[in-house]
Design a protein that fits this description.
about 270 residues; Alkaline Phosphatase, subunit A; 7-stranded mixed sheet; two-stranded antiparallel sheet; 9 strands
Length: about 270
Amino acid sequence: MNHLIYIVMDSCRYDSCQQANAPHLAKLGPVERRYSYASWTSPSHYAMLMGMVPHTSPRGVFASEVYKGEFKRWVDRLAIPGLSFKTFVPELSLPRVLKTHGYRTIARMSLPVLNPYTLLNRDFDDYRLMDHHNDFAGMVREIVFPDDQPRCYFLNLGETHYPYMLTGDDLPHISGVHGVLKDLASDASRTRSDQDFFPNEEMQRLHRQQVKCVEYLDKWLGELYAKCPSNTWFIVTADHGELFGEEGYFGHGPIMHEKCFEVPFVEGLRP
C-alpha cells in the first residue's frame, strides 16, 4: 500500500500556481486546471474528505460515471485493489476507508473553520488546528513514517489564503477589507464603492503575493519529498480559487465566478 499526502493550498488560484516558479511541484507532473465542488473552505473540504477530488468538466457524459471513475482512481493512488464507490458507502469518508485498510490518518489544518470541533474531525486518528495559519514548515517537521503501518497526512495550508502573508512585512492593506473582517461578528453593515474597495494596483499586488506564497510552499515541498518513502502518493490541489478584482469581486465564498472555482491539481508518486 502507498502512503498518502494530500495537500490543499487554501484559496490558491490555478493561474497563481502556473505563474509560480515551483520546480518541486512540477516533478509530480503537469499541473491541471480543475474545478472545486464549492467556493469556500469548509464545504470544499467536506467533498474532498468524501473521496471526491476537484473535478474536470467533461461534456457528453453522465455525472454518475464521472463520480464512479474518480472513486476507482483510489486503486492506483493507494495501490489497494478493489476500491470503488461501493467501498466508500455508506459513510463516504476517505479517512474511514483508509483506517479500514490499516492506515493511521493524520490531519493538520490551518483555517479556523476546519477546527477539531467540526465534523471533519470524525474519522481521523490525529486532527489538529495549527497554532498559526501559515506553518507548512511546522507540518513538514512533524511528519514521520514508521515502518509498521501506512500513513495518510491531510494538510490544509494557509499561506495562500488572504492575507497571503509569510512575514509581518508582507501584510498588504486593502481599503475596506480589514474593516469588513473586523466587523464580521457584528450586525453592522458596510457599503463601499468599487473604486474604494477594489483598487486595481492593490489587487494585482495581492495576486503577486499569492504567487510568492506558492513559491515558498514549493521549497518546503522539496523538504517533504526528502522525508517520504518512495511509495508515497501525493495530491496537491486547492479547495477553491480567489478573485483579485475581476468584475468587481474580491476573495471567495458567495461569488459565482469561474476564478472562484478554478483550482490547480497534480498528483503522483514521490519524485
